[in-house]
Amino acid sequence: MRRASSINRPPTPDAEVDQEQELSLQEIINIKLIESGEKERLKELLRERLIECGWRDEMKAQCRAFTRKRGRNNVTVDDLVDVITPKGRASVPDSVKAELLQRIRSFLVSAAL
Amino acid sequence: MNVQIKEKHLSIPIKMFSTNPTYTNPKPCKHLADYKLIHGLNGYNSLQKSLKTTPDGRTAMNRDQSKIPRCSFCSGYEGRMYFCLICSSVSCCSSSDSNHAFLHSQTENGHEIAVDMDRAELFCCVCCDQVYDPDFDKSVMIKQILEMPRNNNGMDLSKEKSIKRRKLVSKVISDSKISKELVLRMDRGSKSCFPWGLRGLNNLGNTCFMNSVLQALLHAPPLRNYFLSDRHDRETCRKISSDRLCLSCDFDAIFSAVFSGDRTPYSPAQFLYSWWQHSANLASYEQQDAHEFFISMLDRIHEKEEQVRRPNKDDGDCFCIAHRVFAGLLRSDVTCTTCGFTSTTYDPCVDISLDLEPSNGSSTEVADKSNKLSQNISTLLGCLDLFTRPERLGSDQKLHCEHCQERRDSLKQMSIRRLPLVLCLHIKRFEHSPIRKMSRKIDRHLQFPFSLDMAPYLSSSILRNRFGNRIFTFEGDESDMSTDFELFAVVTHSGILESGHYVTYLRLRNQWYKCDDAWITHVSEHTVRASQGYLMYYVQKMLYYKASEEMNCLLMSPRGDPFLPTAECC
């Protein structure tokens, strides 16, 4: 009887091992940011800035308008995220972007040391 | 001289706020309902261990620093991460196309309810939408309370770091030049441009404390309407009660006198005598405290009406005119810092006494350039913030916790459950130290607004701020409460504790008038803002504007003759 070709197949590789081999530079940086706690701090800073400049209030208003138009019972979280995300990204003030980029750059410099 | 006024039906709403029957918690979806039936609160309680609260009061699932949560389908770590309450596996959802949380619910039978890890909120993977359960929020709240960071002066650190939002900050008046006051001469003719009901009150011997409060009350729209509509009938009152003294009757007499059109200063002697009868301890020619007088006056009015109307004490709200106008309801939440159990009590109040503290400007690490100035000035809003801030009770003030069955360290927070028609804010400027047997007065200037929105100090707002987006029903929705108030009277004090002087500023038809015993003068806004506020009287915005309209309708005779009303036009 012929052996099923499946026996000769190498064992299924462990999912995690697979993952590590494929880590891009971006992912490595991200992991470093998270593990050092810097990502949390950056998120807090971003949150403060976006509230201060009224961005959050603006997004809230947009969500309300959308919900009112669609009808309260016809809107899910996914719908809102899909609709508001592009608007939100486009309206982040340049000063906020610049500040965060600067912080990330400093972090990279210090992490490389 | 009594003025004949066509009786207008000025009904004062007794129950201003009714519970909103259409407000209920959002109904759970079928999947959440099923989950609750099978699992009850187990999932929620075991989740508590993994919850962590950030300094600004937001709760998230604790991300193990060394291990980033990854989606069990794609190993991604971006987008919204959902933690399954049944099997604890994590799925991501980065867009409606890539929704692995939904996938999880399809591959595993019954795994429908998950928790949004960043926000500690419930999510239904089948409905692909947020769902709400008061039990879940309760268990999250308890964790938040227990985790509240401690610090020296017992303040809740999570709210110290308040982020300064884009707000309208009223301009700071640094060097106030006292504007020229338009002092009109005392003769009748020239006073004709004054609005109706402005009349000086003679000082009968250090009675400015009484005159100042009377002026404020004479122009409190609901009170004014009540007495001018002859709601308190002196004849009937005399017949009904055996006790011939009635402060309301004497107050009614003052209304008649002040609104008669006669501008010569009036001496409220009968009223003073009546008040002395009931407040024997305060009956002297010594200086008294205006706030104490205000409270005692309301007390007398209430007692008298209770005697007459309801011999048996009724449960619920009192409908005497004093309470109908001034009574509000305060909510006090006391939380045990050991187990998180909170006990709530409601207390009626006729005013709110506020501690005078320097306003806490933003104390964030991030420099707040635009608001540096406001950090050194006390504002009324700052005092209200202080009033509603959670306060850590000292170890000598341990309260009994029902849950622990022991006396425990507690946290107390005040908020306003129901606002009155007229809100009296009392600034505690007189400090009495029983230890040193000394009293002193705090002269610090207080900035106060002419228009006040009390919404942030309502129980619903305070609780919402403390616990974020947690859903829970209130006994009666507060969204139909109107929270906008307009300032109509300020009682100010100048001088030292032992010998000072009270003066009231009245705002009528958007003009300010200074009532200094017998002298009434027209003053600028500037002067009022620079004054030392002691008692601030705010009235619900719509009542203020209605009162202004009514004033406009009634025309004054240009010769300053005793007033004869023309036909009402409204």
Automatic annotation (TrEMBL), chain A:
One of its GO terms (molecular function) is transcription coactivator activity. GO terms for biological process: chromatin organization; mRNA export from nucleus; protein transport; transcription elongation by RNA polymerase II. Gene3D superfamilies: 1.10.246.140. It is found in: Nucleus, Nucleoplasm. Keywords: Activator, Chromatin regulator, mRNA transport, Nucleus, Protein transport, Transcription, Transcription regulation, Translocation, Transport. Residues 1-20 are annotated as: Disordered. The keyword Transport applies. Involved in mRNA export coupled transcription activation by association with both the TREX-2 and the SAGA complexes. The transcription regulatory histone acetylation (HAT) complex SAGA is a multiprotein complex that activates transcription by remodeling chromatin and mediating histone acetylation and deubiquitination. Within the SAGA complex, participates to a subcomplex that specifically deubiquitinates histones. The SAGA complex is recruited to specific gene promoters by activators, where it is required for transcription. This is Transcription and mRNA export factor ENY2. It comes from Tetracentron sinense. The lineage of its organism: Eukaryota, Viridiplantae, Streptophyta, Embryophyta, Tracheophyta.
TrEMBL record, chain B:
SMART domains: ZnF_UBP (SM00290). It comes from the Eukaryota. Residues 27-152 form the UBP-type domain. Its main location: nucleus. Residues 199-541 form the USP domain. GO terms for cellular component: nucleus; SAGA-type complex. The keyword 4Fe-4S does not apply. GO terms for biological process: protein deubiquitination; proteolysis. The keyword Oxidoreductase does not apply. It catalyses: Thiol-dependent hydrolysis of ester, thioester, amide, peptide and isopeptide bonds formed by the C-terminal Gly of ubiquitin (a 76-residue protein attached to proteins as an intracellular targeting signal). Its EC number is 3.4.19.12. Recognizes and hydrolyzes the peptide bond at the C-terminal Gly of ubiquitin. Involved in the processing of poly-ubiquitin precursors as well as that of ubiquitinated proteins. This is Ubiquitin carboxyl-terminal hydrolase. It comes from Tetracentron sinense (Spur-leaf).
